[in-house]
Structure formats: C-alpha cells, structure tokens
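Format notes (please read before filing issues)

Several people have asked whether sequences and structure tokens are stored in separate files. They are not. Every record keeps both together, in the order shown below: the sequence lines, then the token lines. Line labels are part of the format and must not be stripped during preprocessing.
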Amino acid sequence: MSFEGWTEEIRQRAAQYRSDALADGWTSEPLSKWESEELWSRLHRDGFTLQIVARLPRPQSEHSIAIKKPNGMVHAWGPDGMGIKIGRHYSWDELRAGLTTCNECGTRGKTYRFSFAGRCCATCLPAMKKKHEYPGWEN
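Then the structure lines:
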C-alpha cells in the first residue's frame, strides 16, 4: 500500500519520506542506472522494504521517457512480503504496526495474504480474494 500521485506536493512528500527514513537508519540502493537514488530508490531496514519515487519533470533523453509532471510515490512491504498501508509522513512505529493491521478495514490482529502482496484480516479476506484472485489473476 502506498501513496502516489503526479503533483509537486506529493513528489516533495515522497522525497521527505525517503529523507526521514534514511535519517532513521534505513539503507538505500538505486533502482536505475540512469536516475539518481534521490529520484528512484529502494530502502531496507530490518526486513522491511520501501520503494520511493520522487521525480521532477524532465524532457525525453536517449535513456528515459519524458516526464511532463512531477511524480511522487512510496510503497512499503513487511518482512513477510505483504504490503503495508502507510501515511504520507514517515513513521517507523506505523510501519511495524502495519504488520498486524488490515489494509482494508484497519482492524489490528492477525493478517492474511491475498493476491501477490495484499494484507487483510480474516473478516476482509473472502471479499479481497474474490475481488483480486479471479481466474487467471496470477498470470
């Protein structure tokens, strides 16, 4: 689960999320040899993973497509490989609590996987499987 969008405000929030995570001990790796880590990176800490994009608009080059609007995005996964719903501001406590929080209804407790990386409680699981695991979903 993440936040993302094509506004300068969201791009700045993503950049700040990355900066705050790095200050809190996360390590970073680039996700492109043509873009800096500040623009597109994957961060790791204690088995958790963040993928962060904070791109400015740019013209097309031989290695990239043109980006007409700023782009910001943060995705988070727990050590179990399931997505974690996050807010727009970095919080290590929120990320850890996400391991036991349903991404659909917010209930705290045991969570279950649906689809590739979905996380939800037992109550939401049948509806999420029905919505996301239709015939051929894994192809």
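For reference, the curators noted about this record: The mean pLDDT is 92. Helices lie at 8-23, 92-97, 125-132.
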